[in-house]
Amino acid sequence: GGDAVEGQVIEEQAMGRLWDAAGADLEELGRSLSGCVSARDAPTEADTLNRMGVAFCERGDSQRGISHLSRGVSSARLCPNRRVLLTCLSSLGCAHARCGGRGEAIEAFEEAAQVAQRLSDVPAEAHCLRRAALAHASHGDITAGLVVIGDALDLFSAAGDAYGEAACLFTAGVMKYELGSTAEGVADVEASLRARRRLRDKVGIAECLNRLGLALVDIGYHLQALDYLERALALCHEVGDLMGQAHALRLLAYLHFAQVDGDRKLSLELFRKSLSLCRRNRDVLGQAMCHEG
Questions:
Q1: What is the top-level taxon of the source organism (predicted)?
Q2: Domain 2-200 - what CATH class?
Q3: Sequence-distant contacts of 282-289: CB under 8 A, at least 24 apart
Q4: Which of 42, 101, 154, 170 is the most exposed place for a label (fewest CB within 10 A)?
């Protein structure tokens, strides 16, 4: 139902969009790791373990992935260059967030933010805080998440990072909506939409349209919601955002199912399309949401 979709939007953000892994040759990285361990080259060892951990997680082996990422953090602690530690902590936090270790994710992101602050890297600190806010929210503490996202928004504003500001406005809007501040939440998402249109950020625009469409479903404005969700799907298709497409298809499926005279056959077809994309993305949560729908 609507509450089920509503309650999982933040969790989907935390476990899906946080993750941005690149492909890697694990055999080649394994050989590189053996060499740098023998040479006691901590920076290269940390970087290699980090890349291997990301690759394992990308392939669905989260246990080995997190093990390698944790070892990468340990090696990074031995490096004079604190940016190595910042990178490894951020990767470990993303992996925990995606795989359900919310407490561990918060811990990693908060330490990463502290490292960034000591480096006087304001944008990096803001990114870490935003991720920590998402992890707080997905852990069930949306109030704490809202406080942290406010801190991240202030830092992005100070750094003049318009993309970061827009992302934080969106996240803050979703959190406020979840806490029952409907008007404030919608206003923040609309502000994010305006900013993302100025930036011509099509993925961000689609994300906002999806969220506003869901809000319209909640108040029974199904035709307007259909327009928003179909526009979001078209944008995701245009830029090749498979996760965004899966999300939009799932919301459209729910919309058709929720209508009194809805097309149940079309709803089922849309859920199946979303499920297929989730499988391609190795998005376990998305698959579960399709089955629940």
A1: Eukaryota
A2: mainly alpha
A3: 282/58, 282/59, 282/60, 283/16, 283/243, 283/246, 285/8, 285/11, 285/12, 285/15, 285/16, 286/12, 286/16, 286/243, 286/246, 286/247, 286/250, 289/5, 289/8, 289/12, 289/250
A4: 154
